[in-house]
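[PROTEIN RECORD]
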Amino acid sequence: SKQQTRVVHDNGFNPMWEETLVFNIQMPQIALVRFQVWDHDPIGRDFIGQRTVAFTSMMPGGVPVHLFEMAESSIFVHVAIIDMSGKVWHYKIHLQI
């Protein structure tokens, strides 16, 4: 499953997405969550950085996600994990910086 936030214009140093992305995960023991950050300007899109995290290593609450590719770059994510039925995990991410 893949979701994308809206573009934050004219705030490259401290963008605030304030969006919630919800994923239903069938097999949490093998699920990976990948965060990618792109710069979007009139000329095009430039890759800023990414991080892939095993779902089982994510803890509820607010955590910084350090991005690879760009030194000292990170996004702040709020994670809520809800067990909906005992079999399917309901995974909610609230993105903030």
Summary: The chain has one domain: 19-96. The chain has no helices and six strands. The beta strands are 19-25, 32-41, 44-54, 61-66, 74-83, 89-96. The CA atoms of residues 5 and 21 lie 8 Å apart.
